[in-house]
Amino acid sequence: MTSTSDLRYQSGFGNQFATEAVPGALPQGRNSPQVAPLALYAELVSGSAFTAPRHQNQRSWLYRRQPSVVTGAYRPYEQRHWLGGAAQGLAIPPDPLRWGPVAVPDAAQDFVDGLRTVVVSGDPEAQTGVSAHLYLANRSMQRRALVNADGEMLLVPQEGELTITTEMGVLAVRPGEIALLPRGVAFSVAVAGPSRGYVCENFGAAFRLPELGPIGSNGLANPRDFLAPVAAFDAEQDASWELLRRFGGQLWQTGQPRTPFDVVAWHGNLAPLKYDTANFMVIGSISFDHPDPSIFTVLTSPSDTPGTANCDFVIFPPRWMVAEDTFRPPWYHRNLMSEFMGLVQGQYDAKPEGFRPGGMSLHNCMVPHGPDAEAFDKASRAPLAPHKLDNTLAFMFESRWRFKPTAWAMNESGALDIAYAGCWASLNDHFRG
Question: Any idea which residues carry the catalytic annotation?
């Protein structure tokens, strides 16, 4: 494999990519010739149904040294902290919830063993909903790869850079960037030290760029800023590997006497991607009022109800605040959509106290929330001059489905803030009518 310092990328979201690690490995004119070039095997990976509309159809042709069917039989793999689907969550009252950062443990664990499910929704079997996890890793996946057949995975690093080897090539992803790993594509995660971050496991429609509507042709995330890897393969073909597969809400394992990363060339529009959130073109008010958070949507997974997403991935990056006669932090509100939030770095403007990098919050459907008392007081009295929110990055997984926290999140993590609701206690009645 290519070292991370030598990595190259292809640009674009949904592009038809074509890349080869060895000249002549890509067939010309035919996807599956009688004999593939360089004695390779042709294999198609489809991220959508064959009959999906052309603009939504996702697939890539892989040209590899051995097809992925060459593997052993699967057996269960025990990872009790990685859950999926609402049936594995707890019934809770309609309270706002918040968690502090969870430390990466001293005991050695890689990306898979270090996954801790925080909230669940939907059902992988019904292809609906999303789950949100933490990863807490301090060692690389060693001759071990993961295939998630239940959903695609959106990784949001918070501490430590990740090197993600996939069948299509290698991605280096640092905090401030995200990685989008398609359903069904094998990958392995390497770390350089203690690493922590968030994962959205999406069981529904694949993430795509949101429509821009009245915003016009420019704004939000630009397709060209999404980067796909170029073809790269593991030359050590004969080493033994462990393959883990997420399938039907369970984790399964098998062994195989070869690397899963043997794709010499590939073409298509189903690809792992990375994106630097610093390239997000923020849209905001230049007159008055605080706009809806939907203007910060990077990616959306639509549902069968137009405009009501299975999941929106929303970020709150550095930006200018310029609106006049306006309460500038987010307003108090109750939302049809459920909101799971995390903080990558800095401070979130609506919660200067208690919401720390690596932490999380959950405000489910119609649960009231908004700025804490300190933020309200400060924002109500602040001079309304233009100012920059800097050195900050928060994000939100927003879904039409109600999130249910797990037993680990509520009882075992040690990070639940039982005094969270107290941040609003001093919002007294000052009515002067």
Answer: 290
pTM: 0.95
Give the integer Cα–Cα distance in Å for 91 and 84. Answer: 15
- Cα 218 to Cα 227: distance, rounded to the nearest angstrom: 19
**Residue 62: C-alpha distances to residues 21, 26, 37, 258, 296 (Å):** 12, 9, 12, 17, 35
Q: For residue 366, how many other CB atoms are within 10 A of its CB? A: 13
What span, in angstroms and rounded, lies between the C-alpha atoms of 381 and 365? 31
Give 183's DSSP letter: T
Q: How far apart are CA 205 and CA 53, in angstroms?
A: 13
Please answer whether residues 53 and 30 qualify as being in contact, where contact means their C-beta atoms are separated by less than 8 angstroms. Answer: no
Q: May I ask the CATH class of domain 280-423?
A: mainly beta
Contact (CB, 8 A) for 70 and 340: no
What is the Cα 382 distance to its own chain's centre?
35
d(CA 281, CA 298): 10
Give pLDDT tens digits for 299-321: 999 999 999 999 999 999 999 99
Given 3-state DSSP classes, what are the helix, strand and coil percentages for the chain, each rounded to the nearest 5? 10, 35, 55
Q: What is the C-alpha to C-alpha distance for residues 25 and 315, in angstroms, rounded to an integer?
A: 39
Q: Residue 348: helix, strand or coil by DSSP?
A: coil
